[in-house]
Design a protein that fits this description.
Alpha-Beta Plaits; 16 strands; binds zinc ion; 8-stranded mixed beta sheet; alpha/beta; 10 helices; Amidohydrolase; 6-stranded mixed beta sheet; Aminopeptidase
Length: 398
């Protein structure tokens, strides 16, 4: 067998071994203690300068190549990011030899694969050292909560480890295996949550005129909120407003005093995000005032939109073309309404976020993210590693 094929096989086996080990021991947000220990140990074994406990369980590992003066600044510094957390979902994978050994938890979003790809890039670059500058491998906690990136930044990530640009990927069921897809601008949505508290006046179910019925008011609010997207948002833009919980303190024969409505909104741009909040507040306050009820409206930003920078997206597309071939690259993929904590990094540093196809059609990799049967497709591990390594070579040329 040719030497390069033998090396490729060893490389794929190493990455798959790491991935399966992570898969067996899933840990959820900010509890990635043994996961981050494993990541740090592998990075140290590759000779990198590893820093632990950044934003909780976060890790930064530096690989410097270049400049005779030893400063290692070379052509700058690039961040390559992976996420480490699993989900509180009970895995349903009969016969999966490396299934989760932690009841009620699993890597159902493929972050086990993301870690292995980024570790693979570190291994490739630590061996080849064919660039000039600094690569910082960033392993963040708590992506699913949308809290980990902020925690690392609040802990001084960008001051202690400055970077000129940052790159990340997410595996994507529904995209053919190994296809790399991205776009300039919004690729993943912002997520905001809201809580509407309506206080009326409870009364006997048979004597409604004695009270103020918050349930009828709440029902009007749920329907009226659907006019925000259809009547207030520019039809050329997109947004989602979903009420997901409706809670009352009523009983069968008593009209309640309190109603709480909770829900979730998605959008791609800060101005649409602001518009949703403003219009929703006006509708809730207006309808409650009309009926003489008291209203509190709470709106919280959970995830920033993931907005790709044009120049970095062009560089990512070129790197993808080198490693995957032109036919396997999509430079203008449709954005996805789900949210991603990577968006926070892109508010501070230029960069790009891309999807890497996990499988489509009847392929096992097509099972959706966050499904109990989902699994990361091991076949794309070496490709992901080579993609990141190519980005580093192109960003920090010798
Ligand atoms: Zn997820
Ligand atoms: Zn994810």
């Amino acid at each position: 067998m040719r030497q390069d094929i033998v090396q490729d096989t060893y490389f794929a086996k190493a990455l798959t071994g790491w991935r399966h080990a992570f898969h067996r021991q899933p840990e959820t947000g900010f509890e990635e203690v043994s996961t981050s220990h494993t990541v740090a140990t592998i990075l140290e074994s590759l000779g990198l300068d590893v820093h632990r406990h950044i934003g909780g369980t976060g890790i930064v590992a530096n690989l410097r190549v270049g400049n005779a003066d030893g400063s290692g600044s070379g052509n700058g510094a690039i961040g390559i990011r992976a996420d480490m957390d699993a989900l509180s979902i009970a895995e349903h994978a009969p016969g999966r030899s490396y299934a989760s050994q932690v009841p009620g938890k699993m890597h159902a979003c493929g972050h086990d694969g993301h870690m292995s790809m980024v570790l693979g890039a570190a291994k490739l670059l630590a061996e080849s050292r064919d660039f000039n500058g600094t690569v910082r491998f960033i392993f963040q906690p708590a992506e699913e909560h949308g809290r980990g990136a902020k925690a690392m930044i609040a802990d001084g990530l960008l001051e202690r480890f400055p970077i000129d640009a940052i790159y990340g990927v997410h595996n994507m069921p529904g995209i053919p295996t190994g296809r790399i897809a991205t776009r300039t601008g919004g690729i993943m949505a912002s997520e905001d949550n809201f809580v509407i508290r309506i206080r009326g006046r409870g009364t006997h179910a048979a004597r409604p005129h004695m009270g103020v019925d918050p349930l009828v008011i709440g029902a009007q609010i749920v329907v009226a909120l659907q006019t925000v997207v259809s009547r207030s948002v520019d039809p050329g833009e997109s947004a989602v407003v979903s009420c997901t919980e409706f809670i009352t303190d009523g009983i069968r024969n008593a009209i309640p005093t309190n109603v709480v409505i909770k829900g979730d909104t998605r959008s791609y741009t800060p101005h649409v995000q602001q518009l949703l909040e403003t219009r929703m507040r006006e509708i809730c306050m207006g309808i409650c005032a009309m009926h003489g009820a008291h209203c509190e409206f709470e709106y919280t930003h959970e995830f920033a939109p993931t907005m790709n920078w044009a120049e970095n997206t062009a560089l990512a597309v070129r790197a993808a073309t080198v490693v995957a071939g032109e036919a396997m690259v999509d430079a203008d993929v449709a954005p996805v309404m789900a949210s991603e904590d990577f968006g926070v990094f892109l508010q501070h540093v230029p960069g790009n976020f891309a999807f890497i196809g996990n499988g489509s059609g009847d392929e096992p990799g097509a099972i959706p993210l966050h499904n109990a049967c989902y699994d990361f497709n091991d076949a794309i591990l070496p490709l992901g590693a080579r993609y990141f390594a190519q980005i580093v070579r192109d960003s920090l040329p010798r």
